[in-house]
Amino acid sequence: MYRRRNKKFNILQGNEEQSLEFSRNGIRLRQTNITELLKISKKTNKSVVVPNTAFTMELDVKSLGNISETDHTETSSQSEDTIIYGENESVNNNSTSLETTSPSSTIVIHEHVIFNDPTDVLSVEICDDSDIPLSNTGSDELSRKKYARSLTSKRKLIFDDTEEPSSVSPKKRMELTNNSTMEMDVSAPVDVNTAENIPTNTKQDDQVPSCSKSQSTKNNTTAGQKGLLTPRKINSTDSTNKSNRISPQKSPTSPKCLKKLNPKEGKQLQIKQLDELIKLFKGVSKNCFKRKLLNEAEYKILKRFISLEDNRKYVVMKLFVWKKMWYNIFSFSKKANLIVNDDKDIIDIFENLKQEEFVDTMYNKVENLLELLNTLGHDKIKEIMIKLKIKPIKSKPENVKLILQVASRQRTLPGSKSFKEVILNAIENKMGFSFKIKFQDIQKYFQSIVYDKIVFPKVSIENYPVFVSRQQFLDYGKALKVKLLLDDTLSKIKETKLGILNIGNQAYLELQQSKLEERDKVAPHLYKFRAVHVYSKILSLCCNHIYTKKDGFPNEAKKWLEYLIQRFPESRYIGFWYQKLIWLHMRHLNEISYEKAAKLLIEVLENKAYKLNILSIYELAKLGTKLKQSKKYKIDQLYHDKIAQLMPRTIKEDEIPQEQIDSTSIRHLEQTGVKKNYITVSSDEITIQTVEQVALNYYADNGYPEGIHCESSLVNGLLLLFFWDIIYNPSINIPAIFIEPIQQGPLDIFTEYFYDNRKDLFKERLNEISCWSVDKLIDFAKNNWKNHCYKVSIFGLIQNAIRSLDIIPKLINVIGRKLLTSIFARLIEDLRMYRSGMPDLLIWNIEKQHCKFVEVKSENDRLAVNQLLWLKYLKDNGADVAVCWVHSRGSKRKIIKSSPVKSKT
User: DSSP characters for 186-238?
Assistant: First the structure.
């Protein structure tokens, strides 16, 4: 038996008090590799450091306001091995961990909050694992100590089994965090009230205007940079890590991260929201091209909204932002802080909005039964069930389901109300005067413009018609809805192949019924705003996800691919379609035919070569190699010879320098396809690292003290610094590239027209970069960083990729003008294709003025074609490149010619 301590929090929000259970054992860590970790830790008597990326956790405690705690205990017959999750904890060197007995027990994590004293009162706003504003004040202290921070350090898991769980008292648990100081890492300036032992940020040069980051980008892991974040020390022994992780900045688009506003700030935000909405509507009504896209009824609604009184506009605006559901008018007005003299004013407001057709009040309809039941709280659901003589059960969803089942089975007597009508009457008694908005959600617009305070690039706006008719606009909107449905389906953990098939069939039917539209001769890049283009992309994505024989629909994929090739012979996706169709004939159709596959390959290489980019050519070449070398399915000699004639020279992996590192990996027991984590052991701790961090640490010991795990983000950021003016303010006139002030990039970005529209300007800038002195290059890049790093762009925020000015001189010096020019020349030639595939690591030695591009792979990984193409290109242009294979000890090794084996303990 052991005693498990729980907390019961009373959350004070306004005048309402709510109770919240929060287990002191916190959140269970997924059973990925904990058994191995526990064994290793117990054998070596070392603590374990876990970076943010090592685990995925969910937090279902969402609390805002003042939290007071009361203790209660819970007993269980099963003992547990417990890991203390040292995120906000300070640990006494002499203290012991809790509940560590049975080696086969479940590991449990303590999440985020440990109290120093039972009388402590905390105010906690939990946003996510890596961004937790926290304030702490003792019971005898009136002034609250506040600090905000981004939790960026590595997380410690401490193992200890020196004390039996039964002997661990609740008070002992509290004492775990006493008599110690807590080190904190800060990644950005924060507002701090003066308080003892509250950490502050280090001074940074060249401050830029602060702004919220609107997009989440690839995390950068750096080694050896001064001023970067270091792990929090929990052990008595101090140790230094050579690889420090920069935590991702939480995108403020998440509602969890919105600041809790005081009434004055809330009122100002409401006014700004309303101003932005009115500005949006007025912009549509004044623009002749946009106005033509609305029918007469829609335009009248727009004008009526603009003419409403401010309090009525405010109600409509809140309904735009809030969840689309039925609201009681008085509850809504109180929650929205609507300023009125008495209840009669509230009724007048909503009667007026009903007359103007902005809200719907007819909710008591049979078809709304499920929606209305879901709108009500659980207590009211139970009251309705008791009135209807239905026995309530535990959860709200089960009770709702039970009511609907009873309603469907209940027969109606002649001349009396149906049972569904009786339920609706009961719901109406609970809901009172209720209403719902009639329009669509614009939450994302407010989120970016009002909450996130996004700064868009300053550009010259052109009044150009994207759509030539209202029907064209409606067709595009309809296609976008199908695309969003597909994106939602693909984003699910277990995507349903049947759901993808249904969406693909819908897109296929729409394409068959649509007419092929000609591209705009003045602005051909606007073709991406046509429904036909969207449906062709949808069908391509569906093919890519259901073409396999196992759990897929290869015959449907074959039909769609053949249709796409025949319907869009000049498409830039033609290479992808042929590639998938060839592979279907080689592997996934019931009738395997290498002969048909060979004919298709010869057809595309002979007749469509002018539409193929280099990536498609080499992907097709891989299939050609399989066709030529197959012993089971031999093709005719003529096909063999033609394929050999048409194929490019293959790029072999052994042309790229290879290096190997040995490290101990942790297996993911319950998941396949998940990247491995690795263990490195120092004198006093075990560190869990990603494969890239293992490589960074190895190179830090072998001549490259600094480096970044950046993939393509760093190079893309440098591209923006050197070509910002050409992308956003070209000196030549390019029609229809900026038509709205809230664009992240020109409308021709990532199209085949982007480079051609600016070819002369790009060539001139590349020539300047190759001729400028190093000092001029550095000054040019720094000035653009200062002027534009806080603005959104085609690659997100520049400061997400290039965190500070200090790194710019280092990068330019170690990469060099010549190589930098070559990299930029390749990128701008086809930005869509080359923006990905760059090596994982950029490492350098500033003293030797030398850098190296390294692609890191575990033993089961393979180099993708675009990665191999980038490595070959960099090597041909004088860069030092390598593929670093990180092997798990005891695994089957990858045989690499003439490559020494390194050991990373």
Answer: -SS-------TT---PPP-SS--------S-----EEES-TT---PPP-SSS-
